[in-house]
Design a protein that fits this description.
38% of the residues lie in helices and 22% in strands. It contains five helices and five strands; from the N terminus they run αβαααββαββ. The strands form two sheets. Strands 1-5-4 form a three-stranded antiparallel sheet, covered by helices on one side. Helix 3 packs antiparallel against helix 4 (56-63) and helix 3 crosses helix 5 (89-102). The relative contact order is 0.22. Residues 126-133 have low confidence and may be disordered.
């Protein structure tokens, strides 16, 4: 995180890697739909506790219980996802996704928030853990 030119470096590395892949390899690109709203809050809290425990109290106060969203007399209990506008939202999302990404097999794996690239042999073990977060 916080590497200047990091996204550009990943793009160049992917191009270089793709130039040399064999005919039995594929590049799988995942772009999660509505990712920040869909991430499980328990996965976020578990990841925060593991990786940045100094933020756990803040994360628990924000995501430890459903948020009540009000519109006039209507109330919606928000139980999943990162709240829009949370400055720590991208960090929390990335932390929750870290464990499933670590379990992926492939010669080239890169990720930026909800965009994941994986190069692997055709027919190999897929992204079966990604849905867990």
């Amino acid at each position: 995180m916080g590497v200047k030119g990091g996204a550009e470096a990943v793009a160049h590395a992917a191009r270089r890697y793709l130039a040399g892949i064999g005919p039995d390899q594929v590049l799988v690109k995942l772009d999660f739909v509505n990712a920040f709203n869909s991430v499980r809050r328990d996965a976020v809290l578990e990841a925060v506790a593991l990786h940045v425990p100094e933020l756990l109290a803040f994360a628990t106060s924000a995501y430890g219980a459903p948020s009540i969203l009000r519109f006039g007399q209507e109330q919606i209990h928000s139980k999943e996802g990162i709240q829009q506008g949370d400055p720590l939202g991208p960090l929390f999302f990335s932390l929750a996704l870290n464990s499933p990404l670590q379990d992926l097999n492939g010669e080239f794996i890169s990720g930026y928030l909800d965009d994941i690239d994986q190069c692997r042999e055709w027919g190999g073990r897929g992204c079966d853990r990604v849905g867990e977060f």
